[in-house]
Amino acid sequence: MGVMPLQFKEGTTRHTLQLDGTETYDVEGKPAPGATLELVIHRKTGEVDRVPVTCRLDTAEEVDIYKAGGVLQRFAQDFLESTSAA
Fold first, then answer.
1. What is the SS3 assignment for 14?
2. Helices 71-85 and 60-68 sit at what angle, rounded to 10 degrees?
3. Is residue 78 part of a domain?
């Protein structure tokens, strides 16, 4: 699986969100260069917070690599496509 880099909006930090490392996360929205997505924070207390974040997949190529599951999976996919076309 690829890793989606996210950036908090101005004024939001891990401290202002009181993140302590016990949370789990979901990301809602369509990954695109510079897109605003929603980070869903699931706290161990059962509380759920939602905050806007910026998708830092900065090019269409990075989005394609992420969708493929990462660099190695993308390389394998490209390799298999090139060998089947030969």
1. coil
2. 90
3. yes
Distance between CA 46 and CA 61 in Å, rounded?
Answer: 37
Range of the domain at 22: 6-85
Q: Which amino acid is residue 56, in one-letter code?
A: R
For residue 35, being part of any structural domain is answered with yes
Is 1 a member of any domain? no
pTM of the model: 0.79
pLDDT tens track, the chain, 86 positions: 568 999 999 999 999 999 999 999 999 999 999 999 999 999 999 999 999 999 999 999 999 888 887 777 767 777 778 877 66
Q: Mark 3-23 as b/e (b = at least 16 C-beta within 10 Å).
A: eeebeeeeeeeeeeeeeeeeb
Asked if 9 contacts 53 with a C-beta cutoff of 8 angstroms, the reply is yes
